[in-house]
Design brief:
Strand content of chain A: under 5%
Oligomer: heterodimer
Radius of gyration of chain A: 29 Å
Shape of chain A: elongated
Structural class of chain B: mainly alpha
Largest sheet of chain B: none
Strand content of chain B: under 5%
Number of strands of chain B: 0
Order of helices and strands of chain A: HHHHHHHHHHHH
Number of strands of chain A: 0
Helix content of chain A: 55-70%
Structural class of chain A: mainly alpha
Order of helices and strands of chain B: HHHHHHHHHHHH
């Protein structure tokens, strides 16, 4: 038991992070157990080698290069990012993200054959509104209602943008925006009838039956 | 009984957490956030060595480290308004630099051409991993250092970042947790796993060192 415990606590032991009692017990064990003593010795040597790497490397003059690049116009966020940020700081970012997310949800709810074939989780029969999946919020009356109905998708998008901004991952950021626009564009490009049906599909059904689902079935029937 | 703790090896002065409200960069940061570019330049000069060293250990190449250091400071310039003083500015700088390094790895992973070019440069010796410019560094144990650096590069990135920050840069657990955005317990376990992996990788050297460099 003490052997397993010593192995587990070795990291803290080597850092001097153990309480005196524990430390004494491990000390005693190391005096008796060659395996643990060797492990401790080797880890100490490994750390010693790491700390032997030179600290006084001569850095290039990063500052001059950076300041020159800033003077040349780099080091500033793209205009749309700055716009997004200032919009966000004024409290509008949430609404913008909610709007974009509403469109994305609307597209997700677009009745497609995969709904029947299991591409999405099948609706739970017992759920009053037919929407068993958390990906399908219960009711929408338009993009404004999305915030109340489900705050999760807009927050996820917002977090994703924040995460990419934090990493300064402009490539992924551009891809995210491009995908978002592509999805919106594809949705709009499905023809006026489809577009209307899509918009209607996110409206709550007065009977409690999801309109989108019944239309999806109808469409599936057409396809067959 | 061998010395039972690495406490003696610690760079205690670097680890001792300063009082929360005392940030040696606070003045410069405030001036920069008011729009003084000279203050930003002073901050870059103050932190460029530590950032470059971290990136050198994370990436293994001076050229890449220099590139990424520039990108990191440009990124810092872009996102400086986010710094609200919750952590020390140096922690924020490390965070931006570590993210830039991880980001570079991902981008590089996607770009086979760049990777090939880098490998060719390294093979040709024009971009040696950890090529110290100081002649003394070059003279003392450069082979061992190169081996340790190679072992570091073999580590998974998350383990490498933790051990470089702790064992080489002397950053505290708490600060590393802030830099990497993970709990302190995870920091400790990553450091320990990294050391074990390095020990396995460097086992032959550890054996050679036995008895000769016992701390």
């Amino acid at each position: 038991v003490i052997h397993r415990r010593a192995q587990k606590l070795l990291g803290d032991y080597l850092e001097g992070d153990l309480e005196p009692g524990q430390r004494t017990r491990i000390d005693g064990h190391l005096d008796e157990c060659e395996e643990c003593a060797r492990e401790a010795r080797e880890l100490r040597q490994t750390v010693s080698m790491l700390r032997g790497l030179p600290m006084d490397v001569v850095p290039p003059d990063v500052a001059d290069a950076v300041m020159a690049r800033i003077a040349a116009g780099e080091g500033r966020s793209p205009r749309w990012v700055r716009a997004y940020r200032s919009f966000g700081e004024s409290g509008g970012g949430w609404a913008l993200a909610a709007g974009v997310a509403a469109l994305m949800i609307a597209v997700m709810l677009e009745p497609v054959p995969t709904l029947e074939s299991g591409g999405f989780a099948a609706p739970l029969a017992g759920a009053p509104d037919g929407y068993g999946s958390t990906r399908r919020p219960a009711a929408f009356a338009g993009s404004g209602a999305v915030l109340e109905a489900s705050s999760r998708p807009p927050r996820m998008l917002d977090e994703e943008v924040e995460r990419l901004l934090q990493r300064d991952d402009s490539e992924s950021l551009a891809r995210l925006m491009s995908n978002t626009l592509r999805v919106e564009w594809a949705a709009l490009g499905r023809g006026s009838a489809g577009g209307e049906r899509r918009l209607r599909s996110v409206a709550p059904s007065s009977t409690g039956t999801p309109v989108g689902l019944s239309e999806g079935k109808a469409r599936g029937g057409d396809a067959r | 009984m061998v010395e039972s703790s690495l406490a003696g090896l610690r760079r205690v002065e670097a680890r001792s957490a300063p009082l929360r409200h005392v940030d040696p960069d606070a003045d410069l940061v405030a001036r920069w956030q008011r729009g003084e570019e000279e203050a930003f330049e002073a901050l870059v000069r103050r932190h460029q060595l530590r950032v470059f060293r971290l990136l050198l250990r994370m990436l293994g190449s001076r050229e890449e480290a220099e590139d990424v250091a520039q990108e990191a400071f440009l990124s810092l310039h872009r996102h400086g308004h986010r710094f609200r003083g919750e952590a020390r500015f140096s922690t924020f700088v490390y965070r931006v630099a570590a993210n830039a390094a991880l980001n570079r790895r991902r981008t590089l992973g996607r770009s086979r051409t760049r990777e090939r070019q880098l490998a060719e440069r390294q093979a040709a010796g024009t971009d040696l991993p950890v090529a110290p410019r100081d002649p003394e560094d070059a003279a003392v144990g450069s082979e061992l250092q190169a081996e340790v650096q190679r072992a570091l590069l073999d580590l998974p990135e998350d383990l490498r970042a933790a051990t470089v920050l702790y064992d080489i840069e002397g950053v505290s657990y708490g600060e590393i947790a802030q830099v990497l955005g993970i709990p302190e317990g995870t920091v400790k376990s990553r450091i320990h796993r990294a050391r074990r992996a390095l020990r396995d990788r460097l086992r032959s050297l550890v054996g050679v060192e036995n008895g000769s460099s016992e701390p």
